Amino acid sequence: MAVLTMAKAINDGLRAAMERDPKVLVMGEDVGKLGGVFRVTDGLQKDFGEQRVLDTPLAESGIIGTAVGLAIRGFRPVCEIQFDGFVFPGYDQIVSQLAKLHFRSQGRVPMPVVVRIPFGGGIGAVEHHSESPEALFAHVAGLKVVACSNPVDAFWMIQQAIESNDPVIFFEPKRRYWEKAEVDLTATPAPLHSSRVARSGSSLTLAGYGPVLRTCLEAASAAEADGHDIEVIDLRTLSPLDLGPVFDSVRRTGRLVVVAEAPSETSVAAEVCARVQQECFHSLEAPVLRVTGFDTPYPPSKCEEDYLPDLDRVLDAVDRSMGW
Asked: Is pLDDT above 90 for 184?
C-alpha cells in the first residue's frame, strides 16, 4: 500500500508499464528533461533513456502522426498533450487515422496508442488551458475514452489503457493531480471500461466522472444533514459507456442528477440522461437533471468559480429532484 497523489500514481503506472514492455514509449512536449508541466513524467527519461521518453517539437499533429507510425511498427506509444486546448492541431490525425486504421485494415493493424490529456478547469489558467473536450472524442467510432477521478484508478487505468490494442483517449483531471489516496499496488483492478459505485445510497443517484467526482461525494455527504441518502457513481469510461450500474441505481432511487464540467448541449451528460430516460422511465420519480458547465467558451480564470459545477449547484439540483 502506498499513499500517492494522482500525478505520482500515473507516473508509477507509466513506469510499471514501461518496465514490463520495452515497446512502450512516452512522447510529448517537455515530457523528458522537464518531466511534463505537471511533472507527471518526472524521472522517466532519466531511468529509461531518450529513446523511450521523447521530447517532441511543439506540433500535436506531428506527435499523433508519429505515434500512428510507431504503432504500425509494433510499439505502444503514450502521447502527452500538454493541455486540453492544445489537442486540436492533432485532432485530424486522431479521428481520421488513429481511430480508423484498425477498422480500415480489417483488424490486421491494431493501434495501441494512448493519448493522455489533462482536462478541466480549476487551476486559474489562461485561455485554452481548461477545456473539457471529451464529447468530441466519445462521438468518434474507433476510439475508447476514459477519465480517472482518483489516484487508485489513475494508477491502474493508465496501465490498462497501454495494454489495450485500441486507441485510448485518457483524460486526467488536472485540478485533482495533487490529491492523495492509498493505492494498493498489488490489487486486482476493475475492468478498464466499467463504471463503479463510489458511495451507496437509496434516495437519489449522482453520476459524474473526472474532476467532479469529488464534488459529487462532497454533495452526498452534505445532503445527509437533510436526510438524503445519495448514491454516487463514477462513470470512469465515456466510450463505451457502462451504464448498467447507473440503471440499477436509478431503478432503486427513482432520481438521477448527472454532473460534468463540460457544456451541457450534446454532451456525455446528455447521453447519460437520454439513456436513463429510455431504460428507466417507469422507475423515475422526477426528471433527470444535469449540473454542468455553461454553453459558452471557458471564461477568464477570475470567473471560473461561477462556471464550474460546485457544491451549491449540485445540492440545488438534489433539492429540486427530491422536491418533485
From this structure: yes
Q: Are 118 and 83 in contact (CB under 8 A)?
A: yes
| Rounded-to-integer distance, Cα 212 and Cα 57, Å | 33
Q: Which residues are catalytic?
A: 129
The C-alpha cell at 273 is 440522461
- Asked if the peptide bond before residue 240 counts as cis, ω within 30 degrees of 0, the response is yes
Matching residue, cell 467526482: 213
Each residue of 113-158: pLDDT tens digit?
999 999 999 999 999 999 999 999 999 999 999 999 999 999 999 9
CA angle 295, 154, 133 (to 5 degrees): 20
pLDDT for 157 equals 98
Mean pLDDT of the region 256-268: 97
CA pair distance 297, 318, nearest whole angstrom: 26
Q: How far apart are CA 30 and CA 63, in angstroms?
A: 12
Specify burial of residue 92 (Cβ count, 10 A radius: 0-12, 13-18, 19+).
middle
Helices (H), the chain: 6-20, 44-48, 60-72, 91-92, 101-104, 134-138, 151-163, 213-223, 244-253, 268-279, 304-307, 311-322
Gap between the Cα atoms of 152 and 264, Å rounded:
28
Q: In the 8-state DSSP scheme, what is residue 34?
A: S
Q: If we measure between CA atoms, which residue out of 133, 127, 135, 38 comes closest to residue 82? A: 38
DSSP 286: S
State residue 11 phi and psi, 5-degree precision: -60, -45
